[in-house]
UniProtKB/TrEMBL annotation:
GO molecular function, one term: DNA binding
Origin: domain of life: Bacteria
Keyword Transcription regulation part of the UniProt annotation: yes
Protein name, per record: HTH hxlR-type domain-containing protein
Domain HTH hxlR-type: 9-106
Keyword Transcription tagged: yes
PANTHER family linked: TRANSCRIPTIONAL REGULATOR, MARR FAMILY, TRANSCRIPTIONAL REGULATORY PROTEIN
Keywords: DNA-binding, Transcription, Transcription regulation
Family matches, as InterPro entries: HTH_HxlR, WH-like_DNA-bd_sf, WH_DNA-bd_sf
Length: 147
């Protein structure tokens, strides 16, 4: 639950859903094509009760939805919604930051590449409406009211 100081902050609200390590790891795996509870559990090594609660939160938050298994079995699958797919740049940004700062030179790691060309992705950059690359000192926060 957000306090009064953070209730109007989009970052604080996003962290209410995405701030848990497992939520982002589940979304990462969903981007990689995992869909079934057993696949998430095997890949993450997560206890069933924790995985169940995180999947429930992601479904309730509209990032994942459940649907009958594509193979016609009795299982259900967890599928990214448009809202869930919109988190992709966040996951890519975290990945790129991790690649840059958390691995030693030559250390083994996974790499996300363009599926068509096989080349590494461009580094994500924040840009203004005019295309300029923006840094923290170039931005300011303001409160707005809509509606």
């Amino acid at each position: 639950m957000l306090d009064e100081n953070n209730a109007q902050c989009p970052v604080a609200r996003a962290l209410e859903v995405l701030g848990d390590r497992w939520a982002l790891m589940i979304l990462r795996d969903a981007f990689d094509g995992l869909r079934r509870f057993s696949e998430f559990q095997k890949n993450l090594g997560l206890a069933k009760n924790i995985l169940t609660s995180r999947l429930k939160l992601l479904v309730e938050s509209g990032l994942l939805m459940t649907q009958p298994a594509s193979d016609g079995s009795a299982y259900k699958e967890y599928v990214l919604t448009d809202k869930g797919r919109s988190v992709f740049p966040v996951v890519v940004g975290l990945r790129q930051w991790g690649e840059r700062f958390l691995f030693e030179a030559g250390e083994a790691r996974s790499e996300l590449v363009d599926g068509v060309t096989g080349q590494a992705l461009e580094i994500l950059q924040v840009r203004g409406q005019d295309g300029r690359v923006l840094h923290p000192e170039d931005c300011q926060r303001r409160r707005v009211r809509h509606g």
